[in-house]
Amino acid sequence: MTINYRLLATLACAFLLPATGFAADPSPLDVPAKALPVPTADISPGMQAFIGAPLNPNWNKLWKTGEEARAFADVQAAATVKTIPAMLERLNVKSEASIIDGVRVHIITPTEIPAENKDKVLIHLHGGCYVLFPGESGIPEALIMAGDGHYKVISVDYRMPPEAYFPAAVDDAVTVYKAVLKEAPAKNIGVFGTSAGGALTLEMVLRARDQGLPVPGALASGTPMSDATKTGDSFYTNEKVDNILVSRDGFCDAATVVYAKGHDLKDPLISPVYGDMHGFPPTILTTGTRDLLLSNTVRVHRNLRRAGVEATLQVYEGQSHAQYEFDDRLPESKEAFGEIASFFGAHLGK
Amino acid sequence: MTINYRLLATLACAFLLPATGFAADPSPLDVPAKALPVPTADISPGMQAFIGAPLNPNWNKLWKTGEEARAFADVQAAATVKTIPAMLERLNVKSEASIIDGVRVHIITPTEIPAENKDKVLIHLHGGCYVLFPGESGIPEALIMAGDGHYKVISVDYRMPPEAYFPAAVDDAVTVYKAVLKEAPAKNIGVFGTSAGGALTLEMVLRARDQGLPVPGALASGTPMSDATKTGDSFYTNEKVDNILVSRDGFCDAATVVYAKGHDLKDPLISPVYGDMHGFPPTILTTGTRDLLLSNTVRVHRNLRRAGVEATLQVYEGQSHAQYEFDDRLPESKEAFGEIASFFGAHLGK
């Protein structure tokens, strides 16, 4: 790290730091222990409850094999699936399992599709650290987007460990994208997802572009796991502040290592922040101020902007990782997905 | 705070939290002490040095009177003013002190103004907690904007304690705005500033609108001191993480109390996050992931969006309060002000 201390000394007076305040070799900043009250201003009671919940008790489950991860995923999936009938009803959508060119998908169709959305389609890539939310348990976010956004959504039930490892997830996403391209122009296709799904959204475009395919019309990448190398300042600043992911040494990054199965974690198809984003379509990014992946969301935003891409960032007060998608009935969820739907509306088909 | 625990229990399985993980009454989250390394990914060496600097040694100077604050401000101003000749030279701008309807200003003119900017003008409101950066020491950000953005800028040297107290700063801003309105249509006028200047940018529009004036064409509000009531989650999460403001119990909020001189701190003319933002012009907001005012920047962004305003947010990796404006030569400064200039270019005159 090269530091121009003369420059610092000259400019230190521009704010409040005296030149003598700079150490010769910046050491880590020691931050004392603190107690964080539950924020309430501009936050709904339901979201306050999510924000105020204790640390995820499963945060330090460090699966070492695809089989171990899958055993946990199956238990969790069984519980998640029970919530789906009520979601289908209140969001006025239908879901149908299907196969597209060998890839398992769920086709989500809202009761009403407005005229301007009838020739559009969204591809959904679910989250879960590349190991969680198999089968129908992966579709809740797709239901929200279809129901609140009034789009047809194809949710990709991509292969996960132990069935398959890197690059199975991105390959399955591209396979579905190629199939949809036969029925709709690229500009009419949106791609979205959260967490690993937010990363896969970016990875799918990198992979499609490398294969000479046209890029989709617009993307919505929610709090993407854009850097699997534990790089990103909020891995430190929001450690044990984010009550969902909790730590860079937690379940999610460990699960990504299982998925990678020895592959270089800095490969842009696992850590898309390192990808060349020139030529990407308009992209909306979503995160929260307590999100362990706040840095890796804003780093993607800056990389997109530096590549000249139209990119929009929304950051929600107090929210930890992905909490905007935890309950479609909360105003914060309506707001976040409302912004995403508006963004797709403004850019798809253009 | 009303919390629907049945709802939480139903939905907890949507991610990794078991229903039993929710406490009956959310208590503060205990975050252990930690050591933050200086982030380096995607950050220039010069900015790494700012980010890696120790805590501002003046963070807990708690001035109780305007006179005390001004004594500090004068010493700091003398040092800051020394940096200005070099800035004028490298940014190719001229600065001239003047008076507009009784208000002290500096008129900053770049050597070259492109044709599309010749009928535009920017009003600059400097930062400094309503007490710092009197006179010429308040103009560095205006020089950057004029030089890199190629706009004529009028920087308002608004009255500060002990010369005057609330609402002198916003009154002086409105006085200058009214005068400029006689020479340019509102849509050709942009307003910008950082910190207290970011708040004043919003306060000026609230005040102008209340007086029946048209709103400016666009705003750039940098890490606004939008809430002087110590409300906002990052006042806690980024406490002693932000190395500039450091704490909600630091110099800046204390100085704001001096400026308010007993006036209600929740008045939108001191805490503009509480203002009604319907009808605001397009606004770009800037902050950093370590900024003590991260929450109060994103809260303004959400309030603008909820009011239907076109609003854009840029968040810089690792940066504490206002560090994007500390050195105009750093790539992060060029990037942030480049985004702001592009935003003005896209919206002024429309």
Please supply descriptive tags for the structure shown above.
disordered N terminus, eight-stranded mixed β-sheet, globular, 11 helices, 35% helix
What report would you give on this structure?
The structure is a homodimer of 350-residue chains. Chain A has a single domain (63-347), classed as Alpha/Beta hydrolase fold, catalytic domain (Rossmann fold, 3-Layer(aba) Sandwich). In chain A, strand 7, helix 7 (196-210) and strand 8 form a beta-alpha-beta unit. Residues 1-24 of chain A have low confidence and may be disordered. Chain A is of the alpha/beta class. In chain A, helix 4 runs parallel beside helix 5 (140-149), helix 5 crosses helix 11 (331-347) and helix 6 (168-181) packs across helix 7 (196-210). In chain A, strands 3-4-6-5-7-8-9-10 form an eight-stranded mixed sheet, with helices on both faces. Chain A is built from eleven helices and ten strands. Chains A and B meet through helix 1, strand 1, strand 2, helix 2 and helix 3 of A and helix 1, strand 1, strand 2, helix 2 and helix 3 of B.
CATH class of chain A: Alpha Beta
CATH topology-level name of chain A: Rossmann fold
Mean pLDDT of chain A: 94
The CA-CA distance between the termini of chain A, in Å, is: 44 Å
Q: Structural class, judged by helices and strands of chain A?
A: alpha/beta
- SSE order of chain A, as H and E? HEEHHHEEEHEHEHEHHEHEH
List the uncertain runs of chain A: 1-24
CATH architecture of chain A: 3-Layer(aba) Sandwich
- Choose one word for the global shape of chain A: globular
Largest sheet of chain A: 8 strands, mixed
